């Protein structure tokens, strides 16, 4: 967990710079979610979870 | 003031992570912590993700507010709020590596099981009773508080449909990324 000393002015500059690109990315992600069939989305999520699980098993 | 190139690269990584979070309901910290340590120190990356995650999950929840239901979601939220301090203060002495390996095994098992079940059709997908939301939320909160493993906090609601609509599950999943502990991988 991050400590107080890890929060610098530069960090918030990066956050500010990323707000607009991220807002666009979130909107695109929402559109993707709405257009993808739920069954396909479920498979994507579970493959993602599987890969995370393998990662945690091998490189915790 | 950080180098402008660094700012641009970091913003790009954060945007990609936000897309993944928005489309799947989780994975933002996973993407961020795969990319950001390449351009900054890990503690800085952790702090950056902690701040940014709150903005992204709030935005995603707002976009999906029509699919969110407090009556169905509050047991999970309450359990997580209880679980976070338990995990943060109670599990410091336990070997984190061992726990994470066990969780990795659990994730692999659950994902393979549900992938197999999903091939039979949505009506046979893994479904738990609604009361299961509390222990699942508590477990997620404990893990999030102890190890900051946000993805593991997200998976139960992705995998287990407590409501009738899969989309509602995803919305719940996103909503609970708003909990107190930042989603840090």
Descriptive report:
The complex is a heterodimer of chains A (60) and B (185). Chain A is an all-alpha fold and 60 residues long. Helices cover 80% and strands 0% of the residues of chain A. Chain A is built from two helices and no strands. Chain B is mostly helical. Residues 150-185 of chain B have low confidence and may be disordered. The chains are: A mainly alpha (60), B mainly alpha (185).
Short summary of the structure?
Helix content of chain A is 80%, strand content 0%.
Ordered list of secondary-structure elements with their pairings:
The complex is a heterodimer of chains A (60) and B (185).
Chain A (H helix, E strand, L loop, with lengths): L8 H27 L2 H21 L2
Chain B lengths: L3 H21 L3 H8 L6 H22 L6 H21 L5 H23 L14 H15 L2 H10 L6 H10 L10
Q: How many DSSP helices of chain A?
A: 2
Which structural class best describes the helix and strand composition of chain B? mainly alpha
- The class by helix and strand makeup of chain A works out as mainly alpha
Q: Helix-strand pattern of chain B, N to C?
A: HHHHHHHH
**Envelope shape of chain A:** flat
Proportion in β-strands of chain B: under 5%
Structural descriptors:
heterodimer; A: mainly alpha; 0% strand; flat; B: globular; disordered C terminus
